Amino acid sequence: MTTISSTTILRSRNLAKPDKVLSTLLLRYPRFIHAEFMTHRVMTRNAASSRAIPIKKLIQDVVDNPVVPLFWGKNQPGMQAGEECTSEVGVRNVHLDYDEENTFGRTHDLVSREAAWLEARAHAVEAAQAFADAGYHKQIVNRLLEPFAHITVLVSSTEWENFLELRDDPAAEPHIQVLAREIRKCLEDESTIQDLKPGEWHLPFITPEELASTKRGSPTDPLMFPGHDVIQLSAARCASTSFKTVDGFDMTFEKAEEIFDKLVTSKPIHASPFEHVAEADAFYADKSRWATPQQHGNFVGFRQYRHML
């Protein structure tokens, strides 16, 4: 059922100014709160797209792991429900049996809130399959499934305070409260942070073995001058978030080069995945300024690879 999770992918502290930590997290949460998450502009995000995920794959994800509300608010004025509602709901019951034949049986019942929600999910799956059978594109069909779908989001930021203050709060929407608390757990775990000197790189989804095997400028400090191939691999794996329903970012160097080339040669360029890859900037304490703040983007203390292209 409903999944709300935050997993640390990579966290890096800039030793030039140790209060600046760049955290890359992989989130999974109900798609219906994604719009609220997107209001926080100091975050770099790449999210699974309904336009990119195959219909069959998204239907199966909604069947196997549907979003079901964690809090069933009772109707009242205002944006926030103060108490839960337990009333039964009268809806047409579709007993979802999603198999190779895509068969559905129908009855009519007054059912619990959970059962009614899943019946609505069954209607959506039935309609989505009908549109797919009629030849409609996934950018249309998958919209029917979004209320019951999760979204996978890769997010990187150095500035989390405002998000946590607003969303880990009793007045926030209940599901985003849970997400904020899961993110807070990741950010409070100091053991996940690597220390970077200015010039060293934050490379999400890159293993030490991959880093050691790539072409690079420094044999003693692979994070100082990582080869272009490992930068491409990191950026391509970040980009792959857009077409995945769950995590899993295995990718060869050859495939990464292909994806990288498509991103940089497209018109307009698709550059957002390159924001997660970043270099620790130098800080001039005597002047209280960073060496290249114009390349930080929405980070502080880290030069986004996007702004180096």
UniProtKB/TrEMBL annotation:
SUPFAM superfamilies in alphabetical order = Thymidylate synthase-complementing protein Thy1
As given in the record, the signal peptide range reads none
Fetch the InterPro entries from UniProt: Thymidylate_synthase_ThyX_sf
Q: Which GO terms describe its biological process?
A: dTMP biosynthetic process
Q: Which Gene3D superfamilies match?
A: 3.30.1360.170
Q: Which GO terms describe its molecular function?
A: flavin adenine dinucleotide binding; thymidylate synthase (FAD) activity
Protein's UniProt name: Thymidylate synthase complementing protein
* Species per Swiss-Prot/TrEMBL record: Ancylobacter rudongensis
Name the lineage.
Bacteria, Pseudomonadati, Pseudomonadota, Alphaproteobacteria, Hyphomicrobiales
